[in-house]
Amino acid sequence: MLTSEKFEVTVEGYHSVYIPDIIAEPFANAGHKRVLVKASLRDKSHEFHGALQKIKGQYQIMFGKNNQKAIDLEPYESFYIQLVEDTSKYGVEMPEEFQAVLDSDPEAYELFEALTDGKKRGLIYTILRYKNSQTRIDKALILTENLKLGITDMKEIMKDRR
User: Fold this and answer.
1) CATH H-level, domain 7-85: superfamily
2) Which string of DSSP letters, residue by residue, matches the chain?
3) What is the pLDDT of residues 110-120, one digit of tens each?
């Protein structure tokens, strides 16, 4: 599995972390557009899935406020990250409640799988927002029913139509 060394970075602007070419290119050359990012600062660590993007000739990963907060990062403070090959199916960890709902409904599963990778990740992130397991199940059921109605618009897909 492709894994980088730990390296020191700072957040540029509000939410970008620039990745040196020597670190990013092995991932990019192997076709990995998404990576698992392991961030650490002092005694705090945090992992998340991110997109490795090349913008204006520079590789970067978005490192938003929630990620910054998870390691108690102060503005302009340096911290360490390590990139690891993302072996997850969707480029983000699937909540087990959502997976169970999809497993129990073959039609919804097929419709979900027919979506673009980005749309799938967006829907997974939508379910992940909910911390309570029962709420995740309820929202996954609403989402799958709306998929079966042909609704894929992110503004409409979570609306309960019962």
Assistant:
1) AF2212/PG0164-like (2.40.30.100)
2) --BPPPEEEEEETTTEEEE-HHHHHHHHHTT--EEEEEEEETTEEEEEEEE-EEETTEEEEE--HHHHHHTTPPTT-EEEEEEEE--SSSSSPPPHHHHHHHHT-HHHHHHHHTS-HHHHHHHHHHHHT--SHHHHHHHHHHHHHHHHTT---TTTTT----
3) 999 999 999 99
